[in-house]
């Protein structure tokens, strides 16, 4: 009893570490995909998002998302600070009551539950930060992120994981293709629409300018770290260290990511006649987002199919948003998280143990409901911020870069060495 | 019995991995905060420190720090190589005697204990390496690091964790706000005083020149990896996988880090009227150092308060050392590890389960004793090295950079590509 | 029973995550050691190798390597897709039959076994990718990697770990000094011989040009991540969470890595009269490769000796291949993985619990057999590819860089900021 409880709890905590490092993954990926002049801004946003996310989840999000049985079938949870007393397994005469906890259905402590879920919450806002990069004003964005993580994410999260109406309806989203990724992706879409494209991206003559990221190594580091962290994101969502469950999830997660990468490689070549690293990296992420809703339900072959389809979707979706809709999303967050999030959610109705037309319809209702709610909340929040504080930096700042405009610093400072050549950024004082 | 022992032992080993990766965190952070011309030197130092640290802890540090019950209440431990025979749980007829081990109070093997503690030891010297960056001579520094890790850290560590006099006195330092961080921070302070400031830092007219780090992405990667590793640093210090204990430590550690980041954001804005990424990153670290002494004793609100205060201290302390005392510490190690280490130690007497005036006084005695001993040892070692080998590179080498001077190589080599532009570092042969 | 099974299985999965991150380690290390114009190519190759590796291991590699008892003592395994049904521990009436599994000798699920082994397989091809960097054509290399991971690696792997003829003979290779590292290193050697050196490396007058890597921070990040991942590589190879076994492996792995770094520091200084970061980094890797065959058999002192000797071998071997044999291996893979792989395998016959002349001869037979088979397969595959598609990019592409030639993109794009200075790569459109 004690040993099982301890190993289950330990896995949730190790998974928490892994989900935490996804925040470095996002920070690296987004930093790599933006221009050199906006890198500090991305790093600043992502450092703040994880910090704000953890604090707001403590003060409001956790109870809003997991309000307990009284709220079963409902639309909104409870308000209140995390109940610290309920975090630990009770002790009687210094002996921890594992048996009592297990009887109540717990496989890990309330503290572990809180911190694992808190790491998820912050992810959702991070997805948005990539899409709005290179032109959003810092403070309005942080206000948005705070409100989105504190209120919108826990409300839609409660619908399924908190025992709300989607849960009663039979909706299935194992680790959050919809609840985390589509929620984030649709919030990003609203933000991108209201913000407008980066200056120079869409020209008057109809041409679309590619604005390459400043560092592919950073982007690749980001994707590998995200993949690494996804083992905690999906594996921890088993909510125990159950040997069959977690092992299966590791296999399906790995195979879907791999299939996403390989499919995006071929699709990228077919579309662009080149071996496009960005596509492969986003294909891997698409495969990961795609398997997330049903990682515990699929066979190996199904996981590969889901990943492959995600990898095919990625380049098509990115081109569709970028060229057809002319929506400027520097990191492809709407495609990776929004579109593949929907795909993964629907895949639960098509493949695996739960497949069936009824399930497919439920999945569609669920993913669209969450997507629309996130979109609407995000649209409303950004509209208010736009009307009051403004959400976009001015033209001069966008040209000079947000690093100088918002932070008065450079991401890199290249200095003269040994008299050969001097490349000095203004603002930085070079000692010679 | 067997299962509990195995899961407890496993957590110590996983925590060991996490503490190991903090060495990459330090290496990245310090490399990011120095100038481009001194990056190889930082990476070299940090690669050597972890290597030297592990070996010396095997040969001398472990027994000096954990000498066993005979040394209870003492000031110095035993000399000798780690006792290999005592590392494993004994077997009888091929059956491992978990019951006997548990009876003896063990929750994990002696090997696991050694390697977990060895990872801590090397941390302490790494803290110094950031503070002395950009002007210290390599070989004298490595000699210092060897002696400091081999002798000074285990002596002060023994005072509390090894059952020495501070332990008997009731001093409390859960995971090392004092024993690791303040010890490292005060050693750094001694080194900075003896070394002097980087050339050009403090000008004759009284002005202070900011010398910006060369790569904010590296610095941010460093801080996220340190936060990641801190889950092992604090979580492993529970010394078992106890569900309540480790879960609580994860929550307090997370909240303190987050609060440190947010507080430093506001404080940085108040002081400098800009959104200063370095301050937020150091605020996160300050929060982590601050919670370390009492991570197992605090409630969520207390953890947030401790982190917040650390986040407020950081910019004030950095300005105080840099502008008022005119002590040049390129990465802010004295503030992050020294000052916040003291703060975290004192916080145990102010907040949480052990709060009280008596405890506060004990905490003050403990942190000052360790700080002063570390300062004195470090001052003595560096003074001897200064008088014999010299501890500072000559002026020409400092200007050219330590990468060329000490290592004859560049951290980066930018080469002409496709005829557009050529930026070649001297020394590197570019093939065209 | 349930708890032991769960904790054993959990460790295999956590170790899987750690081995996964080694792929980021290899990607970073290799990217750091190549020139700036070939970085995207390296990242692309390594992203594809992990993806291809996982998929082929699912479809063919796993059964080829672990064909079951019927193939005991054999030379080649079975063909077929991983048997999904055998992945999970069977349930009877919803109760998982841990007891039955344990009776059958299992300490973890078949899924966990598959995914842990799959991560190993991809490693082997990654070792080659560094050695062929900066001049190999992308598609032929990916074809090679696919066939090598799908067929050659599982065949030689089966000889020992799959119960084949080397296993019957008493050959010992705990975690793969031979089966993974020497296999990869000798495949790399064949590739290097057939490919030829990079243009400008060996001049007509006999001089050898050093071509420095473009980013030492990336290289150092790579080595630290590899060391981090090695705890899973070696620790997971215990194939359970056995407290004595895994703890011992952590200690020997750590001490050997540290000793490798320190020995390479001294040896590098003796040979080159400078403090060579590349040598220290490769010395650490050499120590890790060296301890891998016998990480569970050695004492601390023996681990240090094995690591030290590996650290001494590294600079000698690199110079021997580079200067004497004039074989151009940009990252030193043949020395680190090939030569130290042999050394580690032989060390099992010299040091530790299994030492003895008989064992040494067996070790020699085993390592040479695997090395030669890998070399031969790799030589044959590359020869066929050379005769049909060609394996080397043309001269113009090599000069311009593979990033532009194969991928039409740059790894970095430096743009004008604030009017100070403009460094723009051709091909990238800079928005102003």
TrEMBL record, chains A, B, C:
Q: Which organism is it from?
A: Neolewinella xylanilytica
**Single biological process term from Gene Ontology:** ammonium homeostasis
UniProt entry tagged with the keyword Transmembrane helix: yes
Ammonium transporter AmtB-like domain location is: 10-412
> Which GO molecular function annotation, any one, does this entry have?
ammonium channel activity
The Gene Ontology CC terms held by the record are: plasma membrane
Note the Gene3D superfamilies from the entry: Ammonium transporter AmtB like domains (1.10.3430.10)
Instruction: Look up the coiled coil feature and give its residue ranges.
Output: none
UniProt subcellular location: Cell membrane; Membrane
Protein name, UniProt field? Ammonium transporter
Q: Which Pfam families match?
A: Ammonium_transp (PF00909)
Give the membrane topology, semicolon-separated if more than one: Multi-pass membrane protein
Listed InterPro entries: Ammonium/urea_transptr (IPR029020), Ammonium_transpt (IPR001905), Ammonium_transpt_CS (IPR018047), NH4_transpt_AmtB-like_dom (IPR024041)
What PANTHER family does UniProt report for this protein, alphabetically? AMMONIUM TRANSPORTER, AMMONIUM TRANSPORTER SLL1017-RELATED
Q: Which family does it belong to?
A: Belongs to the ammonia transporter channel (TC 1.A.11.2) family.
What keywords are assigned to this protein? Answer: Ammonia transport, Membrane, Transmembrane, Transmembrane helix, Transport
Domain of life of the organism in this record? Bacteria
């Amino acid at each position: 009893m004690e040993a099982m409880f301890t190993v289950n709890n330990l896995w949730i905590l190790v998974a928490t570490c892994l989900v935490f490092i996804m925040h470095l993954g996002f920070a690296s990926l987004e930093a790599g995909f933006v221009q050199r002049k906006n890198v500090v801004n991305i790093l600043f946003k992502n450092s703040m998002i994880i910090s704000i996310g953890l604090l707001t989840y403590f003060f409001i999000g956790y109870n809003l998302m997991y309000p307990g049985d009284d709220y079963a079938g409902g639309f909104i949870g409870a308000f209140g600070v995390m109940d610290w007393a309920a975090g630990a397994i009770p002790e009687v005469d210094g002996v921890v009551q594992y048996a009592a906890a297990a009887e109540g259905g717990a496989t890990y402590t309330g503290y572990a539950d809180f911190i694992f879920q808190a790491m998820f919450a912050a992810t959702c806002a991070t997805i948005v930060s990539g899409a709005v990069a290179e032109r959003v004003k810092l403070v309005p964005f942080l206000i948005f992120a705070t409100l989105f993580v504190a209120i919108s994410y826990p409300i839609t999260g409660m619908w399924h994981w908190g025992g709300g109406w989607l849960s009663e309806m039979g909706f299935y989203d194992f680790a959050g293709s919809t609840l985390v990724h589509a929620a984030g992706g649709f919030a990003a879409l609203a933000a991108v629409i209201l913000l407008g494209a980066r200056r120079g991206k869409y020209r008057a003559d109809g041409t679309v300018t590619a604005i390459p990221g400043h560092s592919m190594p950073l982007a690749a580091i980001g994707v590998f770290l995200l993949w690494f962290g996804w083992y905690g994101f999906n594996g921890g969502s088993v909510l125990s260290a159950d040997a069959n469950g977690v092992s299966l999830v590791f296999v399906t997660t790995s195979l879907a990511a791999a299939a996403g990468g390989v499919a995006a490689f071929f699709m990228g070549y077919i579309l662009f006649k080149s071996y496009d690293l960005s596509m492969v990296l986003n294909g891997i992420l698409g495969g990961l987002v795609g398997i997330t809703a049903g990682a515990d339900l699929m066979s190996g072959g199904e996981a590969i199919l889901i990943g492959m389809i995600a990898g095919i979707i990625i380049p098509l979706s990115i081109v569709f948003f970028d060229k057809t809709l002319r929506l400027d999303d520097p990191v492809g967050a709407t495609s990776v998280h929004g579109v593949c999030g929907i795909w993964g959610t629907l895949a639960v109705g098509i493949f695996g143990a739960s497949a069936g037309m009824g399930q497919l319809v439920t999945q569609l209702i669920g993913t669209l409901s969450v997507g629309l709610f996130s979109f609407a909340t995000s649209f409303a929040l950004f509209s208010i911020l736009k009307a009051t504080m403004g959400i976009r930096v001015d033209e001069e700042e966008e040209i000079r870069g947000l690093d100088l405009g918002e932070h008065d610093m450079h991401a890199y400072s290249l200095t003269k060495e040994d008299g050969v050549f001097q490349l000095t950024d203004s603002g930085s004082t070079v000692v010679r």
